[in-house]
Write a structure and sequence with these properties.
With 207 residues, the chain is α/β, with parallel strands linked by helices. It contains six helices and eight strands; from the N terminus they run αββββαβαβαβαβα. The chain has helices spanning 2-30, 62-76, 98-106, 123-132, 148-157, 174-192, and strands spanning 34-35, 46-50, 54-55, 59-60, 82-86, 114-117, 138-143, 161-166. The strands form two sheets. It has a six-stranded parallel sheet, with helices on both faces. α1 packs across α6 (174-192) and α4 (123-132) runs parallel beside α5.
């Protein structure tokens, strides 16, 4: 019994160390690619807006609205020429991307500059599809600080010249940061095993 407990404790310790190392890797390796706003951000082909919650009637959640407004700032500052909205449209009743398109149109963005990824079911899928479906080679990503390191890490690991722009305006719950601890492990697993997204499909070049 003592031997089992000792091995169990050792295994748990190794697991904790692995989690710590992976999270440090994601954070440290992407730190130099982060920007606070449109003024300092580099130019890129496109700004990618990762999906977030959309309420009944197509009302954008505050977190999603902050991501979109950050992308709008980059577009208006001419840092990018196209906007790619990625989100979950897995059912008829759940659509994260069309409400964003309507909002962008209301803010004066021409329809031809808006691209929608209806199969961005998670961050890995969004980055993978940006590269393989939309042909993106360089991009800015607008999302909150808790999510940005993982998004940039995945994109750059997939060969995309990606930079992050923080969309920290509203209040972010502590559980969002806790969620990232294990989400980073999942991202590294997907990259190691070259996991393909659930859907790929025909190419839609942003050019």
């Amino acid at each position: 019994m003592k031997r089992i407990l000792r091995y169990g404790a050792m295994s748990f310790g190794v697991l904790l160390c692995a989690i710590l190392v992976i999270n440090l890797l994601v954070f440290v390796s992407t730190r130099s690619y982060m920007y606070d706003g449109s003024e300092d951000a580099p130019e890129a082909e496109v700004v990618l807006i990762p999906g977030a919650a959309v309420f009944s009637g197509g009302v954008l959640s505050p977190i999603f609205r902050d991501r979109i407004d950050a992308a709008l700032s980059l577009y208006k500052a001419q840092k990018v020429k196209k906007i790619l909205v990625s989100g979950d449209n897995s059912t008829v009743t759940h659509n994260e991307v069309n409400p964003v398109r309507l909002y962008l149109l209301s803010q004066g963005v021409p329809d031809q500059d808006i691209f929608l990824d209806h199969a961005g079911f998670d961050t890995y899928s969004s980055m993978y599809r940006a590269r393989d479906i939309f042909g993106v080679t360089s991009m800015l990503i607008t999302t909150q600080s808790f999510h940005l390191p993982r998004a940039v890490f995945i994109a750059r690991s997939l060969g995309v010249d990606a930079y992050g722009v923080r969309a920290d305006v509203g209040t972010v719950l502590f559980r969002n940061y806790l969620r990232e601890i294990l989400a980073n492990e999942k991202a590294v697993f997907n990259l190691m095993f070259h996991t393909k997204p659930k859907y790929l499909g025909e190419k839609i070049p942003i050019t």
